[in-house]
Amino acid sequence: SDMFGYVDGAYTGSVGNKQGLFELAAGGTLFLDEIGDMPISQQAKLLRVLESGQYRRVGGKTIRQADVRIICATNRHLWESVLAGTFREDLYYRIACLNVRLPALRERIADVPVLARNLLEGISRSMRCSYHLMPDVYERLQAYQYPGNIRELRNILFIAATHSNNREIDATLIDKVMSNLPNCDCHHAHGTDGLKQETSMLPSATDEEHSDAPVTLKDIEAQHIKELLAQYQGNRKKVANTLGISERTIYRKIKDFGIA
């Protein structure tokens, strides 16, 4: 229904008529993020639209014409997904007309300072505080290989922000955060004691809940998403905009983290 829309009474809870993404993007560009995660059943429907240029709203009978340019993105190797049977070969050839490979962050370490400043601005907005990167922090950030790409850089900055006492993020704080990462072999780290002692500063899911388990990147990200959902009264679109990610991604994260 998100992609093609629906008509009134198409299914339980569908009230009124709703335009789908193809209809809303008519005459423009439709960006499909994380196409590699699309279920096989939805892949067949997408292929049908791309081949025929026609679709119907869920529950509707009127044939509509699709007039959009499609841009897809994925962090998966789609051909490997084809070989694994999780992505349709015919859809692969239909969308793989022009491939643009975005290099991994480890291949463009020189971009880290600019990206870090931009990401921290978004974190500052979402947390309603103004955080600053100290000059000595960039060398530390550029010494890491980022197997999790830009999302990992953002998580590192977010953890550092939650542990900053004066809203300044310096090299010492980044050392503590990085030395606690599962994939990090940080020769410049000064130990993790300081970070582990400070994890009690992070908000828990409830006032009564307490756990001695170490705080992970996923724990902190899930907690942050919960707080934003509460702040925006469950409006996932606003949460996605605040985090600088697509609405599809926020839906997936909510599902993966088991957030009610």
Sheet with the most strands: spatial strand order: 1-2
The total domain count is: 2
What CATH calls the topology of the largest domain is: Helicase, Ruva Protein, domain 3
| CATH-defined architecture of the largest domain | Orthogonal Bundle
Large-scale geometry:
globular
Task: Give the SSE order as H and E letters.
Answer: EEHEHEEEHHHEHHEHHHHH
Please state roughly what percent of the residues sit in beta strands, choosing from under 5%, 5-15%, 15-25%, 25-35%, 35-45% or over 45%.
5-15%
Q: Span between N and C termini?
A: 21 Å
Task: Figure out the total of helices.
Answer: 12
**Contiguous runs where pLDDT drops below 50 for at least 5 residues:** 187-214
Rg of Cα set: 22 Å
Structural class: mainly alpha
CATH top level assignment of the largest domain = Mainly Alpha
Provide tags for this entry.
two-stranded antiparallel ribbon, Helicase, Ruva Protein, domain 3, single chain, Rossmann fold, 2 domains, 260 residues, 8 strands, two-stranded parallel sheet, 12 helices, mainly alpha
What does this structure look like?
The chain has 260 residues and is mainly α. It has two domains: 5-95, P-loop containing nucleotide triphosphate hydrolases (Rossmann fold, 3-Layer(aba) Sandwich), CATH 3.40.50.300; 105-257, Orthogonal Bundle (Helicase, Ruva Protein, domain 3). It has helices at residues 21-24, 40-52, 78-84, 89-95, 112-127, 137-142, 149-163, 171-178, 193-198, 217-231, 236-243, 247-257, and strands at 5-6, 18-19, 29-32, 54-55, 64-65, 69-72, 132-133, 168-169. Strand 4 and strand 5 (64-65) form a beta hairpin. Helix 7 crosses helix 8.
